[in-house]
Amino acid sequence: MDFGQAIAQLKGGQKVARAGWNGKGMFVYYVPPGTYPARTEAAKSIGEDIEYNAYFAIKNVNGTVSTWVPSINDCLAEDWKVA
What we know:
Strand order of the largest sheet: 2-5-6
Oligomer: single chain
Strand content: 25-35%
Structural class: alpha+beta
């Protein structure tokens, strides 16, 4: 599927990945907007509860999670699949 279809799957609660990714177990998921308690002093300068915008997150090979921004190659790829 293409990236537009992958985004639709993400917004529907699915995990997606590229067939071409070498990392075993990697996938992207959508994190909806929400309010979360401040966990750092910098965040506390905004308030006790912080309103976050939606974003994409990626589960990395080592089990950690990071925010994710697609590359142009990811956006133009047609090898997306539901993970």
